[in-house]
Amino acid sequence: MKRITIKDVAKAAGVSTAAISYALNGKESKVSVETLERIQATVASLNYIPDFSARSLVNKKSNLIGVIIPETEGYNSAILENPFYSEIVSGIESELRKHNYHLILTGMDRGKGYSDLTLQRNLDGVIIMGIYNDSLYEELKKVNIPIILIDSYIDDTLFKKIGIDDEFGGSMATRHLIDHGHTHIALVTGKIKKDGVVEKRFLGYKSELEKAGLLYNPAYIFEDSIRYEHGVQAGIMVAQKHPEITGIFATADMVAFGIISGLQEADKRVPEDVSVIGFDDIMMSSMFIPQLTTIRQDIKAKGIRAAQYLIQTIQGSISNDLEKNTLPLKLIERQSVRRVLS
Amino acid sequence: MKRITIKDVAKAAGVSTAAISYALNGKESKVSVETLERIQATVASLNYIPDFSARSLVNKKSNLIGVIIPETEGYNSAILENPFYSEIVSGIESELRKHNYHLILTGMDRGKGYSDLTLQRNLDGVIIMGIYNDSLYEELKKVNIPIILIDSYIDDTLFKKIGIDDEFGGSMATRHLIDHGHTHIALVTGKIKKDGVVEKRFLGYKSELEKAGLLYNPAYIFEDSIRYEHGVQAGIMVAQKHPEITGIFATADMVAFGIISGLQEADKRVPEDVSVIGFDDIMMSSMFIPQLTTIRQDIKAKGIRAAQYLIQTIQGSISNDLEKNTLPLKLIERQSVRRVLS
DNA sequence: TTATTATGTTGTATTGATTTAATATATATC
DNA sequence: GATATATATTAAATCAATACAACATAATAA
After folding, report:
1. Among A214, A282, B5, B321, which is most buried by a count of CB atoms within 10 Å?
2. Strand C: which positions are within 7 A of a protein CB?
3. Cα–Cα distance for residue pair B30/A182, rounded to 1 Å
4. What is the residue-wise DSSP string for B237-248?
5. How many CB atoms lie within 10 A of CB A245?
């Protein structure tokens, strides 16, 4: 089946290809009403669908957006095994589709460049998740297209960012435990890297302890990776080695699930013996038993907002609306935290 | 920053653009060793990256694969909220990346066509999830590119398929309950549509009941959608209206989670009072409490296999290896099913 | 009526890479 | 040394669309 090109349409409608192009690209003013209608009719009858390759070759726009998920430790080349990212991508996709952009989804082998994809495909823009100071940093600057960073604290006006106030979130979670009478509070988290979200949440945790006059004990920090398995280990550890700990703040819900399992495995009950608070409020958190008390961020909205922001930037209607770029957080009280009597 | 084109490289290396093209596309035999080396050197020094739009314009290959997730009932335009799909996409992505294909991920508004995307982007192939007999059927045939269907029973040699033996899986699950002494077994499931996977699982359930001489009771079928919420409702229903039911087969793990919550809400314990078996073995199933007994399919492998099969088809090395296209199932015994005494 | 402006319309160059056919050069055969 | 063969190399056509500049026609102004 041969492809129907703009020439075929032109011939059938008895006009030039230029007329077709004008008629189809919002330049109806350059075409009379009669020809416009005739063109539209023939386009429909021939079922003509323009070729994006040819189009993007001339006007350097591809209507393609790259969505890049760097490999997280522990999630080996399985970029969507982390449900948090799935929800974000889901939001991005729905928003992009609404605006007639297509989405190229890709993981990123460490070492390999971002710019390859971008240049090869003439991407109109890129959304990158959870990147912290890194070698990629400089490379990103070279590729001169709009870039939105989700959950990044890279401090450069060149990059637009969508995120949350992670430090505040860390404070909220910690304070919630403190307010419920907990005095020995552990933190279970992924690697604390400079300018990563996890560092900020940790900072919130620490400052809130100080504010409450509680002792910050480095032995209460279980730092490894943002994975279920790490949570399990930490849970067992807490149960066996630290009976004084009654509250645990996990910097991700996934980790909180692991902690709860680990605790139960070591015969501690949640929340009767130990309270656990998570972070993110992924979908599973309300389905888990016990239902997880956590700091909610609207994950899907994050994706949607990132897509909107990117599209605005591409189309030049840049609204540098910082308030809308730091999304709200909310404490969701469910079943995994209880009050202890002092 | 101006783009570096093949012409720039040609000029810098003192050869024609044709030579560059040969050197870069595995046609080294048409180029002498010296020029090849010179070209490679200049390509590296100029950091030349070819433009896929131009390339795909001439050879009608885009190195792009479309991954299409039709909107599931209940998952309104949030294509990845279903963790099952996320895992598949994850598998597809890793495999495609390995072979230098890029992936366009998109949901599909009901009504809108598949062929638009395909033709616009000159896709080399398409992977479509969970499509059953439908109006889209005919449209798919018109677009003459390789298509892999995941979890579909559309019977047409034009479409290649990757799936599992859903009926057998349904049997396995049901038999497991029967073997554990259960005689009143409910089925909680999404809409049973002709040629959908759910229908097959239902058929397996039914036939296994008959085989065991048990009564098939339509009142035990809770048919609505493959969603957590439906599971909750069904769980409550069973607890309140059907105390005789001791075993429940959910045609998806997500639904099983809901059932367990619903049962607990209505003061039934799992597995002490009621046993629940799921289907899929998504990641959460081993993390859930109680850990879910389920029929495992290797979800990520499904994605990988689909990608492999598609790439083979595109490249002409078609291995119509049916055995490898029906992936194995395995009963995973965990904590949500227990033996009842008769 | 002629000059001027506005409105449609089209021919053609352009985009970046591939590929065919033609050409130039080197090597082997007799 | 002349002819045939193999090997490098390149000029130019091609892919499908866009957009500039040129031109024709109609509408308006003088």
Report:
1. A282
2. 7-12, 14-21
3. 75
4. HHHHH-TT--EE
5. 22
